[in-house]
Design brief:
Order of helices and strands of chain B: HHEEEEEEEEEHEEHEEEEE
CATH topology of chain B: Porin
Oligomer: heterodimer
Strand order of the largest sheet of chain A: 2-1-3-5-4-6-9-11-13-14
CATH architecture of chain B: Beta Barrel
Number of domains of chain B: 1
Largest sheet of chain A: 10 strands, mixed
Number of helices of chain A: 15
Strand content of chain A: 25-35%
Structural class of chain A: alpha/beta
Strand content of chain B: over 45%
Structural class of chain B: mainly beta
CATH architecture of the largest domain in chain A: 3-Layer(aba) Sandwich
Number of domains of chain A: 2
Chain lengths: 630, 314
């Protein structure tokens, strides 16, 4: 009996923390974006002034707003609509424009940041939960408004377009606040520098809002006109869901904004990094300097970025089934938010370019970031794809004409789709799996073969078209896996008779030790070759930490964890940006403008498997490369 | 004379039950839910499969399969089986109950003779009461509607009595003051019974209103079950001459892991009509993922206790 009482609860399992090494240095020489700024902070509420449930929006509004008709975006069962109207005092035809504002005590104009919560118990109001960000950002010269969309919370479905539309209606109200003579915010708002930020379903909604902002009509009902066109420069998605709403049945396309997505590995609500899918879909098409950044935060959860939500991601009683022991503290998680969101907004709205390197390689800010492990993706508008494995099923061709792919001595070479760990949900992204083992099969276990290689070759014309030069950088995104191929079969001499059958021994039984998880650090060399066959080689670890998958157990019960999740880890690839100038420094004869091939040489770890994606080159803004690790 | 005839079953029960502690009560107990019994048998608004014995509406939300046995005394034991399965947006349930007892040879039954005088005759040695129920429920506009048919029979010595009857019910989940969940259920049971069945089968026409509620109390979970019912007295109109009975049960549970919890229960009720069962009930439950083990105790006449043990699979 005692055994059955405890049998299903699993012990705490975490990947050993390497942050003391990875985050050992602080190379960015800029003020910590998590430090309080120099402005005094003022607060106010705007809203209907008639709110039945929220006294702030009834008795304390400094600016009265008109209700909006959101009925085109929100559908409910009649009983549900009736219940909600009874509680809130209004229905979807009269949604209020309510918000709480933190703003700097100064003349302005200040960039405007709207933050919207996601789904939660509608009676446990979520909008006050970003107070720490409001206080912080206002002190640093931003206006932050936390938008009330609690009336869209609870048992609603497919309403994220409504959340997005409401956010844009708030921006319309803000345009009025800036222009109105009676407004306490008159002239203080920089309507040309706007960021929208959302959490959970709100995180999906900001993607829709960025898309709706530039559309003339509602994709699902063209009778509804959109006339927004705000200068949204930055979009922040905190632990977002994805594609709960699909405009016109398609995944939401987002273009030409700076985009940041953050997600915790131990998210007990949105337990997969679904925001990576929207991150992949953000495109830069107008030639302006945009960038996008994704952060996977080990041991962070869903709710600690909101002070109301807290650590129990699935309600007050969820500690019964969520394993909360591995979480970083709420303070650490919010400190991360202040650093990364703060730096992102400083860089994109205040044009403080000194923060840009943080998004290229997070190791430059070891003193700012809470000590946990991070996996980061990065891309900026100069990036040009060579291979992203989306275009066809031919493993020898790249994603643009003129790129060919070859492998040598690889044990594994296959292209496949990446899946999220939650019920194997498609990531909508393909990649290549490359495995190697330098050990040669046979009795002599010390015998090693030549290192395996994987080569991305460019034709001369493509190299010229890409205008690669010394200022360019090479992009790779890599995730080591736990798979370890067996020893390599020695190359056969085809001129000799096949005598192996006669001499062959019965295969050995698998050694129990071989079944143990290989935790050796994965490293490899990145080699470039120019048209003169001059090569230059650098270790990958100089540009980031290639970690094996981070072990993640969200639920207390092992059996339920197994049912819900395909893996005990999320496959998140780390982006490595390698300046070609570094290759020149390593091998001065190397001519970047004659780049002929990029080669991964698996010479630094004897055996392993990696997933590789998004290989490309970029004429990256040098500001991103400042203060790189030596 | 009519008055005597009307009151006869009550008088018979009164006398028969008191003739000897070794004699069976005239009416055999009908409680069939271990958890429900521990909470005053106030189970009309219950959510487990054995709610089929109390009212069919809640079958719409009930789940599982359960079996239970109860020892009332060394001469009387009973058991029940029930199961519920989802079908489309509704559910169907099956239930069966049996109670067996044996009278001592000296036990007598008192009845009213043709001349209006009480007549004593030997009680049947063996008495068996059986009940089989099949029911279904569905949901319409947030109301759960249910109906069930049941076949009850008593074999008392060589004499056999049986009857086909029906139950109907309606229930709804709502909330108190917007926060506290509340389930309200109404059931009318034993439609088609007769005055004779009231005694022999213990199936009086009965109308019951049940409530369940609950919520967190610190780290514990509190559940409350309450019920008021009126049972028809012989052939009298239900609400004019019915016997009002009621009960209130409480459960305090602690879950240390999702799907694993332990609960203690108590109940206080108007004792069931003309049985040896008393007013105080208590019990405990242990949930181990899909398996629930429940215990219930019922105070009986004197200081005796009836013990019931049940197991439920979800």
């Amino acid at each position: 009996m005692a055994l059955s009482l405890v049998a299903c609860a699993q012990p705490l399992k975490l990947t050993p923390d390497d942050s003391r090494i990875v985050l050992a240095h602080q190379l960015l020489d800029a003020p910590n974006p998590a430090d309080r700024g120099s402005y005094g902070v003022k607060t106010l509420y705007y809203g209907s002034g008639t709110d039945k449930q929220r006294r702030y929006y009834r008795d304390s509004v400094a600016i009265k707003t008109k209700a909006v008709d959101a009925s085109a975006f929100v559908s409910m069962q009649p009983e549900q609509a009736e219940d909600r109207k009874k509680y809130w005092g209004f229905d979807a035809k009269q949604f209020p424009i309510n918000g709480r504002v933190w703003y700097p005590d100064g003349a302005g104009p200040f960039p405007l940041v709207l933050v919207v919560h996601g789904n939660h118990n509608m009676k446990d109001y979520s909008d006050p939960g970003y107070d720490y960000l409001g206080e912080h950002l206002a002190s640093r010269g931003f206006i932050l408004a936390s938008v009330d969309e609690n009336f869209l919370n609870g048992a609603m479905r497919n309403e994220n377009d409504g959340r997005a539309w409401m956010l844009l209606k708030h921006l319309q109200a803000w345009r009025g606040f800036n222009d109105s003579a009676s407004s306490p915010l008159r002239g203080k708002i920089d309507m040309h520098n706007i960021a929208i930020m959302g959490h959970s379903r709100g995180g999906e909604a900001v993607g829709h809002a960025a898309a709706f902002n530039r559309l003339p009509r509602y994709p699902d009902d063209a009778k509804v006109k959109f006339e927004f066109n705000f200068d949204i420069k930055a979009v922040v998605a905190i632990a977002p869901v994805d594609a709960q709403y699909k405009p016109a049945g398609q995944f939401t396309p987002v273009e030409n904004v700076n985009y940041l997505v953050i997600h915790g590995s131990h998210d007990g609500d949105v337990s997969a990094f679904t925001g990576l899918r929207q991150w992949q879909r953000v495109k830069f098409t107008d030639g302006k300097p945009w960038f996008k950044s994704a952060w996977y935060v080990y041991r962070a959860n869903h709710g600690q970025w909101n002070t109301v939500w807290g650590s129990t991601d699935a309600g007050p009683r969820s500690a019964r089934f969520l394993d909360l022991r591995g979480l970083i503290s709420p303070e650490e998680q919010r400190q991360f938010g202040k650093v990364v969101i703060g730096a992102f907004l400083e860089a994109t709205l205040h044009d403080k370019r000194e923060y840009l390197p943080l998004f290229r390689d997070h190791r430059v800010a070891g003193a700012w970031l809470p000590k946990t492990m991070y996996i980061t993706r990065f891309q900026e508008s100069g990036y040009k794809t060579l291979a992203n494995y989306e275009e066809d099923v031919d493993v020898t061709t790249g994603s643009v004409a003129g790129v060919s792919l070859t492998g040598d001595s690889l044990s594994t070479w296959k292209e496949d789709a990446l899946n999220l760990r939650w019920q194997n949900t498609p990531m909508n992204d393909n990649a290549v799996w490359l495995g190697w083992n330098r050990h040669l099969a046979g009795d002599d276990t010390t015998k090693l073969g030549q290192p395996a290689t994987y080569t991305i070759a460019l034709t001369d014309s493509l190299a010229r078209a890409l205008r690669v030069d010394r200022q360019s950088s090479l992009y790779l995104s890599i995730a080591p896996t736990d798979a370890k191929p067996g020893p390599r079969q020695p190359a056969r001499d085809s001129t000799k008779k096949d005598s192996s059958k006669a001499k062959s021994r019965p295969p050995k039984k698998p050694d129990a030790k071989k079944e143990e998880k290989d935790t050796t650090t994965i490293d490899l060399s990145v080699e470039v070759v120019d048209a003169n066959n001059v090569t230059a080689r650098l270790p990958l670890t100089r540009y980031g930490m290639p970690r094996r998958p981070l072990e993640t157990h969200v639920l207390r019960r092992a059996d339920r964890e197994k049912t819900q999740f395909a893996n005990t880890y999320e496959l998140v690839l780390q982006t490595y940006v390698v300046p070609l100038a570094d290759f020149v420094a390593a091998s001065p004869q190397f001519a970047p403008d004659k780049l002929k091939a990029i080669r991964l040489v698996f010479d630094r770890t004897l055996a392993g498997t990696i997933i590789l994606d998004d290989i490309g080159v970029s004429a990256i803004d040098p500001a991103f490369l400042a203060q790189a690790r030596p | 004379m009519n008055r005597v005839r009307t009151l006869a079953p009550a008088l018979i029960a009164l006398f028969a039950g008191r003739l000897s502690a070794q004699c069976l009560p005239l009416r055999l107990p009908i409680g069939a839910s271990t958890r429900g019994i521990a909470m005053a048998d106030a189970n009309t608004a219950g959510r487990d499969d054995d709610v089929i014995f109390y009212g069919p509406a809640q079958l719409a939300v009930a789940r599982g399969t359960s079996a239970s046995v109860e020892r009332y005394s060394d001469r009387l034991v009973g058991g029940a089986l029930s199961t519920v399965s989802r079908i489309a947006s509704g559910a169907v349930g099956l239930g069966a109950q049996i109670i067996e007892g044996r009278n001592e040879p000296q036990c007598n039954l008192v009845s009213v003779g043709p001349n209006g005088l009480f007549v004593s005759s030997p009680a049947p040695r063996d008495v068996t009461r059986m009940l089989a129920v099949i029911g279904g429920a569905g949901t319409f506009k947030r109301f759960h509607f249910g109906a069930s048919a049941k076949y009850a029979g008593v074999q008392a010595g060589d004499e056999r009595t049986s009857r086909l009857m029906f139950d109907a019910g309606v229930s709804r989940d709502m909330s108190l003051a917007d926060f506290v969940p509340l389930t309200v259920a109404v059931a009318v049971q034993n439609i088609g019974t007769s005055a004779a069945d009231t005694v022999q089968l213990n199936t009086p026409l009965r109308a019951a209103l049940g409530l369940t509620s609950g919520g967190p109390v610190g780290p514990l979970d509190l559940a409350v079950a309450a019920q008021v019912a009126v049972e028809r007295n012989a052939n009298q109109p239900l609400f004019q001459h019915g016997r009002m009975i009621g009960g209130l049960g409480l459960e305090l549970g602690y879950a240390w892991l999702d799907g694993y919890n332990f609960a203690l229960r108590v109940g206080e009720r108007v004792p069931p009509t003309r049985t040896d069962i008393g007013h105080f009930t208590f019990g405990a439950g242990l949930v181990l993922d899909r398996v629930t083990i429940d215990y219930a105790g019922e105070g009986e006449v004197g200081s005796r206790l009836a013990h019931r043990i049940g197991i439920r699979l979800r």
